[in-house]
Amino acid sequence: PGSLAGLLAECGSLQSEEEEEEEEEAEPGPAAAAAAEQRREERLRRFRELHMKRYEACKLNSQEVVEEDKRLKLPPNWEAKKARLEWELQVQEKKKECAARGEDYERVKLLEISAEDAERWERKKKKKNPDLGFSDYAAAQLRQYQRLTRQIKPDLEQYEKLKEQYGEALYPTSDSLLHGTHVPSKDGVDRMVADLEKQIEKREKYSRRRPYNDDADIDYINERNAKFNQKAERFYGKYTAEIKQNLERGTAV
User: Fold this and answer.
1) Could you tell me what percent of the chain has a pLDDT over 70?
2) Whole-angstrom Cα distance, residue 27 to residue 22?
3) Digit-coded pLDDT (tens) for 51-70
4) For residue 98, what pLDDT is reported?
5) Cβ neighbours of residue 148 closer than 8 Å, sequence gap 6 or more
6) Which of 6, 83, 201, 220 could be cross-linked to 226 through a Cys-Cys bond (beta carbons 3.0 to 4.6 Å apart)?
7) Could you give phi then psi for residue 120, rounded to 5 degrees?
8) N- to C-terminal Cα separation, the chain
9) Does Membrane count among this protein's keywords (predicted)?
10) Cα dihedral 158→161→165→166 (10° resolution)
11) Do the beta carbons of residue 7 and residue 53 sit within 8 Å?
């Protein structure tokens, strides 16, 4: 927009100069004719410059339209993919440089990582808790123990008081007698009871899918027929219960 305004301004000034030249050409004299010729040449030069500027502006505008059309046709995550590819190329070049110098790339990479980045990555790793499923009872118990310990919120004030009270005896050794020496607080007991009740409530909600009941009557010939009978029983069982009993007893009319 700024260049377009400049072009219009220059065109306006050229038009005004042309009008002034026409007025001067009406006056006789060789000096006026020479001055008019000089201004005409200057005006033609400026016209050529304006033409070149207009051509360059049209060319740049067309290039920008083509580039914008390319960007609109790209997928939405193209920038992220491009950054990822550039990063992979940088890693490959870095590995080649390290191999040429006889250095270990992993060691060089760790030396370039700052302490803040390392702590942030460690926190991300700790947040991950993949559920690998049930493998054995020991692993399940370990997962339960880790989950419960993560929920513990230590009372640092109470800890400092106990440390001042017992001193080194607060940290038992293999020769320390622990049985009967610790009396839990009321808050600790209430917290343990609340946690146990929560576990019981959660355990009651567990349900295991059972494909069939061994004690139930077999009134189907295949799995598809069993599902159909279950649907029929769910919708029409209360209406056909008496008929079914009469058929089973042999008293049906």
Assistant:
1) 81
2) 9
3) 888 888 888 888 888 888 88
4) 86
5) 195
6) 220
7) -65, -40
8) 97
9) no
10) 50
11) yes
Q: Write out the two tokens for 38.
A: 């000089």
Of how many residues is the chain composed? 253
Token couple for 29: 């004299």
Contact yes or no for 21/40 (Cβ under 8 A):
yes
Contact in structure between 14 and 47 (CB atoms under 8 Å):
yes
- Chain centroid offset of residue 56 CA: 43
pLDDT tens digit string along 79-105?
A: 888 888 888 898 888 888 888 888 888
Task: Identify whether the C-beta of residue 252 lies closer than 8 Å to the C-beta of residue 243.
Answer: yes
SS3 208: coil
pLDDT along the chain (253 residues), means of 10: 52 58 55 80 86 87 86 79 87 87 83 81 71 74 85 83 81 73 82 88 76 76 89 90 84 65
Structure tokens at 92: 């490959």
Quick one: tokens of 140? Answer: 């399940």
